[in-house]
């Protein structure tokens, strides 16, 4: 998910994109109003994910989000989990044409055949990666030496050299729908980088960058 998801042009002018909520906590505007987005921001986004199934779920959801708003995916997340066997790669890798037809007829999820097929392909590729240490370790191996320190949501990049490299590496491993922007969003979501804006109550919450120095 891009941190600029849901930010209007009016919000995009000169301010930091941060607001103080009724609870006194500082959040970006995209996480300040919708209760579902706020809960996701406060409890999950940017927290480390280091297990295979968790990483596969995040990768799959980021792929389904392409071209859509992240809140759309969050609202469908439980349905996604139900129909994709809770994103167990072993089970999803066995999905066939009957499963694709089942998924394409389920209005509770994003019915995009290319993305559904990509999820199955990526599950199969995830199994293949186990011999190389597994999906989670593979993705985390692209952690940069420094993390961004954005002073406003408008300073948060949408790609990085590491997300470009991760995209290329995953494609070589047989993954699909893993473009550089999608992989940057994944890296944000699972704590590999910290793009919480300086001043947000969640900045540094992952603990990943506690002992790293970043440029001012």
From TrEMBL:
Residues that span the membrane, as ranges: none
**Entry's InterPro entries?**
Adenine_glyco (IPR005019), DNA-3mA_glycosylase (IPR052891), DNA_glycosylase (IPR011257)
Domain of life assignment: Bacteria
Q: Which Pfam families does the record cross-reference, listed alphabetically? A: Adenine_glyco (PF03352)
Name the PANTHER family for this protein: DNA-3-METHYLADENINE GLYCOSYLASE 1, DNA-3-METHYLADENINE GLYCOSYLASE I
Protein name from the UniProt record: DNA-3-methyladenine glycosylase I
Q: Which organism is it from?
A: Brevibacterium daeguense
């Amino acid at each position: 998910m891009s941190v600029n998801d849901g930010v209007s042009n009016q919000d995009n002018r000169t301010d930091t994109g941060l607001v103080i909520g009724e609870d006194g906590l500082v959040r970006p505007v995209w996480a300040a109003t919708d209760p579902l987005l706020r809960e996701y921001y406060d409890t999950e986004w940017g927290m480390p994910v280091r297990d295979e199934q968790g990483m596969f779920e995040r990768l799959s959801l980021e792929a389904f989000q392409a071209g859509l708003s992240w809140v759309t995916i969050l609202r469908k997340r439980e349905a996604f989990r139900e129909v994709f066997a809770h994103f167990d790669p072993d089970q999803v890798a066995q999905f066939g044409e009957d499963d694709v037809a089942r998924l394409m007829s389920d209005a509770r999820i994003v019915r995009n055949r290319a993305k559904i097929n990509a999820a199955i392909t990526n599950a199969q590729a995830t199994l293949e990666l186990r011999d190389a240490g597994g999906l989670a370790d593979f993705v985390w191996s692209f952690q940069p030496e420094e993390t961004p320190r954005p002073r406003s949501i408008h300073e948060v990049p949408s790609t990085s050299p590491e997300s470009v490299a991760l995209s290329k590496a995953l494609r070589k491993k047989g993954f699909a729908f893993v473009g550089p922007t999608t992989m940057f969003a994944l890296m944000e979501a699972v704590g590999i980088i910290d793009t919480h804006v300086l001043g947000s109550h969640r900045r540094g919450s992952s603990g990943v960058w506690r002992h790293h120095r970043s440029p001012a």
